[in-house]
Amino acid sequence: MAFPRKSLTIFLVAAFVLLTAVGLWMLDGVFAADGFGDAAGGGNIFVPFFGLSIVLLAVVVAWAVWPLLRPAGASPHIGSDEPGTVFPRPVDLSSGEIPDFSHVEIPVSEYALETYKAAVDHAPAAIMITNNRGRIEYVNEAFLKTSGYSRREILGRSPAMFGAGHTRSEVYADLWQTILSGRVWRGEVCNRRKSGEEYWENMAISPLRDRFGRVSHFVAVREDITERKGREDGLRQLAQVDALTGIANRRHLIERAEQERRRAERFGQPLALLMVDIDYFKTINDEHGHAVGDQAIRMVAQTCAVSVREIDVVGRYGGEEFVIVLPGTLPEGARELADRLRQQIAAIEIVGADGAPIGVTVSIGFAAFESGDELEQLLAAADAALYRAKSLGRNCVVAVTDFLRREPPGDVQ
Ligand SMILES: Nc1nc2c(ncn2[C@@H]2O[C@H](COP(=O)(O)OP(=O)(O)OP(=O)(O)O)[C@@H](O)[C@H]2O)c(=O)[nH]1
């Protein structure tokens, strides 16, 4: 049970005064009884009381003086290896709120401090503490292991030293705004190890307040998520790519085409869409087998993919049908590319089932985006042009004219 220091001191002082008074009164009584008194008899009664009060006085003095004699740990600093190191009080990360403990006196024993320090030093998550001027004051063992730096290379520097340069400036702006307003920031950031290798970290950064409620430090708890990120990227890639050809699958193609359509509408930029279909593909399949058919599909997809710019989107729209989205491209440019593609594909030779070379040709229809077009309309227009190219004898390119868009199929350009 803990006694309040103040009450106990008052009690001890009162006991001291009482015992001293009783002792003096008795001494007085003895002297009053027989003049100078019987030194032996009077002394016998007085000594125990006076002795007890002296002991009490010693206890009171020791009680008052003891705190002043304790070992100096008065101005501990973060991250020191010396005994008495104090860490700022942690913030409850779960609620996102910063509790205000500034009015609470928390007596912390040396033993408890050592325990806290060991827990933070050897925590499995990487932990970094920066001061409110953005200088690193503490990193734990896991942080050193993840970053590859030594403590000497890190302390006193800015956390910017770990940045890989890929994180957008808005992310950092949001981070500072959040923590300076006293809230916890969470996010994923790409950093660089000392070896130069990039790695992804999931971070929670929370402000720490001093006893006056001022933000004095920031503590960052960081988890290396590079492996998980890699798996996610792989899965995303798998979900977007056509397994046979390696180009965008139908779903991803439509997503990207819709993005480009919206961009063209918003900024009034040109956009063209090509639909490419292998001619007489059923015959290739029937005469040479599906493996040779697949080979033809792969060759055509590859030729399309390497013939366009990086901003263009090439995807497999159906079995032997491909769509190419050309942002910022006028009809003349689209026609030029379509003609070039048709010729390049016609030059492809694949080996048939009998070992003899097989020629592959394509028909191409294309349409230019017009303001107000939905993606379905654009696709349907290119498909109508492709249909016309097929009916013209195949291995040719047909553009959608305004006429063709308004009227039912009947004329070609
Ligand atoms: N080998 C292979 N064949 C496929 C694949 N997807 C679709 N096909 C086949 O492609 C053929 C397409 O035939 P059609 O639509 O009649 O077209 P086509 O024979 O090329 O005739 P035109 O387009 O009019 O020149 C069908 O036989 C499908 O089974 C695929 O991934 N691999």
UniProtKB/TrEMBL annotation:
InterPro entries assigned to the protein according to its UniProt record, in alphabetical order: DGC-Regulatory_Protein, GGDEF_dom, Nucleotide_cyclase, PAC, PAS, PAS-assoc_C, PAS-like_dom_sf, Rev_trsase/Diguanyl_cyclase
Gene3D superfamilies named in the record: 3.30.70.270, PAS domain
Keywords: Membrane, Transmembrane, Transmembrane helix
SMART domains named among the record's database cross-references: GGDEF, PAC, PAS
Domain of life: Bacteria
SUPFAM superfamilies named among the record's database cross-references: Nucleotide cyclase, PYP-like sensor domain (PAS domain)
Domain PAS: start-end pairs: 112-158
Transmembrane segments: 48-69
GGDEF domain segment(s): 269-402
Pfam families referenced in this protein's UniProt entry, alphabetically: GGDEF, PAS_9
Domain (PAC) ranges: 185-237
Protein name: Diguanylate cyclase
The organism of origin for this protein: Aromatoleum toluolicum
